[in-house]
Each structure stands twice: as structure tokens, then as C-alpha cells.
Amino acid sequence: MKRSLFYTFGVILVFTAILLFNTFRFESKQLLIESNPSPEVSTSSIRNFQEAIRFKTISNSDPSLFDSAQFFGFHRFLKTTYPTVHSRLSREVVANYSLLYKWEGKNPGLNPIVLMAHQDVVPIEEATKTMWSVDPFAGEITDNFIWGRGTADDKVNLISIMEAAEKLLIENYQPERTIYFAFGHDEELGGTGAQAIVVLMKSRNIAPEMVLDEGGIITKDKVPGMTKPVALIGTSEKGYLSLQLTAEKNGGHSSMPESETSIDILAKALIRLREHPFDPGFSPSTQGFMDHIGPEMPFFKKIIFANRWLFKGIIIGIYEKTGSGNALVRTTIAPTILKAGVKDNVIPTIAQATVNFRLLPGDSSTGVMERVKKVIDDDRVTVSPFNNFKGEPSSITSENSFAYRKADVIAKKTFPNTVTTPFLMIGGTDSRHFSKISSGIIKFSPITDPIGFHGIDERVSLDSYTSALWFYEQLMRDTK
Ligand SMILES: [Zn+2]
């Protein structure tokens, strides 16, 4: 008895020692860089942003609704508003509506930087039209916010890039590295514009050292346990796949139903899928995230992040509690469309469901499809890809790359008292197409807690716009 007690004590002691050792060794990865105060935003810069929102550059899933005049109008607006950019930079129109600018650097021996943003915005959902507090395409300013569709996604980046470049060009500034601006026109539909830009750049053997696109943001309160703002610098993004499940069984009159109908078969398949979630795991970007925010946490939380070999289950349990947290640790399954039946007294022969998957880096669309078939385990349900819009999980940008380090430094110089960290992007961006020509892809929007992304009352604060301008200006001034 005494002996076993002694052993138990011993084990606890060793365990505690390991936990504490790891915790004390879990050092901060934050760069010690002071931020530079941002200059005040001019009224003309604000007016230009408002004006940009007024162009209804909408990406509709129905191609017949595409309004080319809005895109051409937007191009003309850019030309007249940023005359120096347009006289000094070369500009190409790619895939009819996408734009590629080139700002020649002083040093042609250095690989270029690509700054990305997309011109298109998502439509206003019919059912939500009356729920907006403002006209979504008026570019209104109230309560120190700029309101409207596209303010956060993604015209704030596009206009900030243009404003910063115009300002520096007027000063006769020339960057050390060549800088490209790549503005796709259909990011919300999968990004054929961005893909065409990549093809063009590849044909010219351009290998960007850094590609910066929309992505993670600065958040003041969305990282649990953190009291300081956190800059989420995206280093990878999840993949995208939709599958169609079709259950077929002879229908007939609903007065004499058999024990199972096509709808029952489909419903069972969907339930089986949802009851068998993908295994959780930490992707490299999420590992990086924990390595960066963990050391900044209060001691007891720090112990947990410093000892993931022991507390992985606890951390995953915490993440799983919310939809957004769960999305960070696994490939997700979301049924999105159901179709069956035409009449209340007829049993349909065919029942169909569309299920959307967001793939964790490491998973693949073929792997997901195989697993779905295995889980459903019913020959009466066929599984096929739904439309062509799919994307494998993106490549992962190293924390030690020029691109990450540069984004880290400029974020520190722009945002006071902010913790910076790598991050896994849950949504998709045009930048994933650039993995064909660059290994330094960063997904980061230098704005703080935007509201209404793809939803109602989309808006960004004037402070966010100010910091975005400052971020791009500082980046353009420091490309080496
Ligand atoms: Zn976007």
C-alpha cells in the first residue's frame, strides 16, 4: 500500500514537472516592434471608398444576371480617381473584367509581391432586403462606419491598395520590389479571373515572393481567453466540395406506402453522415495559432496549450462547442439543398440532397467522397460531385517565409498592442489559385472586426479603413 502510494506521488510529481517545464519553455513568439501611429484618413479617401460601394459589381450564381456595365463603370471610376496609378503603372484587363497592374520595382533581381483584392460582391438576398438599415449600395456613413455591400468583402482592400499607391506615386516613390495588384472579378463564384491571372503570370515565369489577399482580420474579442486584439494572419485555407446524394426507389400512391421510400433512404443516409463526423485534428496553421496565442494567455490556459500532447482532447472539446471552432479542427459536413416530391399524395421515385464539405488541409476531395460512400453504406444512394466548383485545401505558407514574416512585421507596425498569429482560413479566397506560382501566400485583411460579412448591414469602421490604408502604405514602403 505504502509503496503504491509512493509511486502514485512520484508519477504525479514527474507529470507536474513536465507540464510546468513545457509551460515555462513555451515562449512568446511576438516580435518586439512598436507600432507607428497612422495618419488621419482624408475626406477624399473616404469619399472614394463610398463611391466604390455604389457600383453594383455583383456576382450572381445565375450568369444571365451579370451586369458588365457595373464592372466597366468601376474600372472607369478607378481610372479617374487614381490617375497617377493609371499613368505610371501598366494595366492589363484579364478575362474581360479582372485587372492586373504592375508597379516596376527598383531591383529587378527580387521576386515581386502581389497584392490582391476582388471587385465583385455577393448579392443582397431577396428575403433580407428590408432588413438592411441603409441602402446597401449607397456607401453611407453613420456612427463612424462605412456601410454597404462590399465594404468588408472586399472593396476595403482594393480601395486601400489604390489609395496608398496613388499617394506614394505622387511622392515619386518607387518600391524596391516590383508590386503587382491583382483584382479578380468573380471571386465569389470560384475565381476564373484570378485563375486567368495566374496562367498569365506563370507564362511569364513570374514567381511572387509574397501574395497577399483578403482573409483573417484583427479581432478584439473573438479569440477566447485573449484580452489583447489578435491579428489572424491566414497561412492556409480549407478546401471546398459539394456532393449530391441521390436515393432512388419506385414511388407510387401515398395511400399504400412501402416500409421505405426514397425520402426515407435519403434521410437515413444524411443522418448517418451527420452522426459520423470527420476525425478532428490540428492543421499546421492551427498548430501555429496555438503556438502564438498560447504564450500570451493567462497561466492556466497556457499550461493547456503548452501541453497539447496531453490536453488535445480538452482543446478539441472546447473548439467543438461552436460552429466556427469546430470548423477549425475538422472537415465539416453541411447538408444545404433537399429536393424530392411534387405532390402531397405521390411518393417520389427520386430524392436528392446536396451536402457541402469544407476540407481540412490534409484531406482531399477523393478521400472525402470515398468516406461518404463508406459511411452511408447503401447501394441505393449514389454519390456524385455537385457542379464543378470544388477546391482542394490550399498549400500551407511557412511561418518562416518572407511572406509571413513581412505580414507579421507590418501588422505589428500598424496595430498597437496586437498579438499576431498564423491562422487557418475557413472560407475560400482567390489566392489559393496562386499556389501554382508562389509558396508565400498570406490571407489577411488589415481591418478590425468587420460586421455583416455576406449578410445584412455589412460595414467597416472608419478606424478600420484608416488602418488598412496605413498597413498597405507601410508595406509598399518596406518591400525588401
Ligand atoms: Zn471576399
What do you see in this structure?
The protein is an alpha+beta fold. The protein has two domains: about 45-235 and about 395-475, Aminopeptidase, CATH 3.40.630; about 240-385, Alpha-Beta Plaits, CATH 3.30.70. Helix content is about 40%, strand content about 20%. It contains 14 helices and 17 strands. The strands form four sheets. Strands 1, 2, 3, 6, 7, 8, 15 and 16 form an eight-stranded mixed β-sheet that branches. A hairpin with a 3-residue loop joins β1 (about 90-95) and β2 (about 100-105). It is globular. The termini are far apart. Zinc ion binds near residues 118, 154, 187 and 214.
CATH architecture of the largest domain: 3-Layer(aba) Sandwich
Classified by CATH, the class of the largest domain is Alpha Beta
The level of helicity is 25-40%
Number of domains: 2
Shape: globular
Total of helices? 14
Taking all residues together, what is the mean pLDDT? Answer: 94
**Structural class estimated from helices and strands:** alpha+beta
Through-space gap between termini? 67 Å
**Largest beta-sheet characterization:** 8 strands, mixed
Number of DSSP strands? Answer: 17
In CATH, what is the homologous superfamily of the largest domain? Zn peptidases
Residue runs with pLDDT of under 50 for 5 or more positions = none
Quote the CATH topology of the largest domain.
Answer: Aminopeptidase
Strand content: 15-25%
Q: Give the ligands present.
A: zinc ion
User: How many whole angstroms does the radius of gyration measure?
Assistant: 25 Å
